[in-house]
Design brief:
This protein is an alpha+beta fold. Helix content is 26%, strand content 24%. The chain is globular and about 45 Å long.
Length: 286
């Protein structure tokens, strides 16, 4: 084990989540928030108000400071303890709720619309401000040793969802067993892609800022109709399932923006295809 204790690793494998793990110092958090403010100034809007979702996702493709976060050795040591030494970054997304925001994440599993085989993705959720219960932190349904498969989801169910597909699990489950995962700024939570999770509105007076960083072991493949991009952040990759991405050489350069547009476009094609495949498997909602 490089970072976690055996007890922590066993808890993740049994329950499907782990929280909290301290990563960034207060000074590093301040720097990341300053970097985010510079990015939002470049966009001309706070990220939650930006209508084109591409600017919220895959920021490591055009923002070197985000690339630095996904490659942070302290994060990768945690990921390696859970998935092994050969690690790819699959996606990354800003999850920001303004004070008083009504937006929620309905109960869902990340891998439902990813098309990964096997579904061994894990999400590292990095808090850049305090993600308290009041601020709408993530809630999970622990596995209790019984890891689920992909459950039936229906898109377009929750219009105030911050998720791209506004999806929601429509199979019966006991929400009373949910466990909150509050985080202080600089801490991370980790959850498996098959872990059901959700979040409530931000009823706090401060902005809830987080970055979700999705990692997969190098043996994972995908079922997308187009070749997807991924970034090797540790170890080796000898497969051909993904087009390996290079880190950005500058912030918001024309080359980086063009590359970002390309990989986000491919991700969108895959996402739509996975919704269709999901409906074929489970049946379309009436």
């Amino acid at each position: 084990m490089k970072s976690l204790t055996q007890q922590q690793a066993d808890h993740f494998r049994t329950e499907g989540y782990l929280c909290p793990v301290p990563i960034l110092t207060p000074a590093e958090v301040d720097q990341a928030l300053a970097d985010l403010a510079r990015y939002e100034s470049w966009l001309g809007y706070p990220l939650p108000e930006v209508t084109d979702r591409k600017w919220k996702t895959m920021p490591f493709a055009h923002l070197p400071w985000c690339d630095k976060l996904i490659r942070d050795p302290r994060v990768l040591d945690v990921v390696e303890d859970l998935v092994g030494p050969d690690i790819l970054v699959w996606t990354s997304t800003f999850w920001i709720k303004e004070p008083g925001s009504p937006h929620v994440a309905a109960w869902h599993q990340d891998t439902a619309y990813f098309g990964l085989e096997p579904p061994e993705q894990i999400c590292v959720w990095l808090a850049l401000t305090d993600a308290t219960v009041e601020a709408g932190c993530m809630n999970v349904l622990p596995w209790r040793g019984n890891r689920p498969g992909v459950l039936r989801h229906v898109p377009g169910k929750v219009l105030i969802s911050i998720n791209r597909g506004t999806q929601e699990v429509v199979e019966p489950f006991d929400e009373a067993k949910a466990v909150p995962m509050p985080l202080k700024a600089g801490e991370i939570s980790i959850h498996h892609g098959l872990m059901m999770h959700a979040s409530a509105p931000n009823n706090a007076k401060h902005r809830r800022v987080g970055i979700g960083m999705n990692y997969i072991p190098a043996h994972v493949r995908h079922t997308a109709p187009v070749k997807m991009g991924a970034m090797l952040v540790r170890g080796e990759y000898s497969g051909d399932a993904f087009e390996l991405m290079s880190p950005p050489t500058g912030e918001n350069t024309p080359e980086a923006i063009a590359f970002h547009d390309d990989i986000v476009g491919r991700y969108g094609v895959n996402y739509s295809e996975q919704i269709t495949r999901h409906e074929r498997q489970f049946g379309k909602a009436s």
